[in-house]
DNA sequence: ATTCTCACA
DNA sequence: TGTGAGTA
């Protein structure tokens, strides 16, 4: 049965235990804008989508040689909906990438625009590349590194 | 019992 | 990144 993956259910302690990530680290990820857990009464609560994203983030950070800055960059240049041509109603119910710090549908390729530069090819290339990376990452079966 | 923020190593 | 302090 498909429950709401967007519902914030887990407090930071549970998430930390489930993913073996120090609470401090989780807070830093949030501080860096890489994750946006819900807030209830000043407390953080993560959804299943958040967990999935965290697993993906972990892989990006630990295995794919990316750092926080790198992941941030990735997120700023990956308007997947534009690449896939998703309708608005599709975007709003996208199960994979949903609880991102910045909703994917709000992302706008701005790197070049701000500079008044028009490197369309480069932009498209990056978007596709990022899209593929994100898709693969989110789809991957994550093996808990429960050491 | 838990989490929060902040400072410090 | 991880810990300890002092709260809420």
Question: What does it look like?
Answer:
The chain has 147 residues and is mainly α. The chain has a single domain (10-139), classed as Multidrug-efflux Transporter Regulator, Chain: A, Domain 2, CATH 1.10.1660. The chain is 52% helix and 6% strand. The protein contains 8 helices and 3 strands. Strands 1-3-2 form a 3-stranded antiparallel beta sheet. The chain binds a DNA duplex (9 and 8 nucleotides) through helix 2.
CATH topology value: Multidrug-efflux Transporter Regulator, Chain: A, Domain 2
**Main sheet: which strands, in order across?**
1-3-2
Total count of domains: 1
Q: Determine the N-to-C terminus distance.
A: 30 Å
- Give the count of helical stretches: 8
Shape: globular
Question: How does the SSE layout of this entry go?
Answer:
Blueprint: E1 10-11, H1 12-19, H2 23-31, E2 38-40, E3 43-46, H3 48-62, H4 68-76, H5 80-84, H6 88-92, H7 111-115, H8 120-139
The structure holds a DNA duplex (9 and 8 nucleotides).
Protein name: MerR family transcriptional regulator
Pfam families: MerR_1 (PF13411)
GO molecular function, one term: DNA binding
């Amino acid at each position: 049965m498909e429950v709401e993956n967007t519902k914030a259910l887990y407090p930071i302690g549970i998430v930390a235990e489930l993913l073996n990530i120090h609470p401090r680290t989780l807070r830093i990820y949030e501080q860096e804008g890489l994750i946006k857990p819900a807030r209830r009464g000043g407390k953080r609560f993560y959804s299943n989508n958040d967990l999935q994203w965290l697993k993906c983030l972990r892989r990006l950070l630990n295995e794919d040689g990316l750092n926080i800055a790198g992941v941030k960059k990735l997120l700023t240049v990956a308007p997947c909906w534009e690449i896939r041509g998703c309708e608005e109603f599709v975007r709003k119910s996208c199960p994979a990438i949903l609880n991102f710090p910045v909703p994917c549908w709000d992302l706008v390729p701005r790197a070049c625009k701000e500079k008044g530069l028009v490197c369309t090819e480069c932009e498209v290339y990056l978007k596709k590349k990022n899209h593929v990376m994100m898709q693969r990452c989110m789809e991957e079966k994550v093996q808990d590194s429960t050491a």
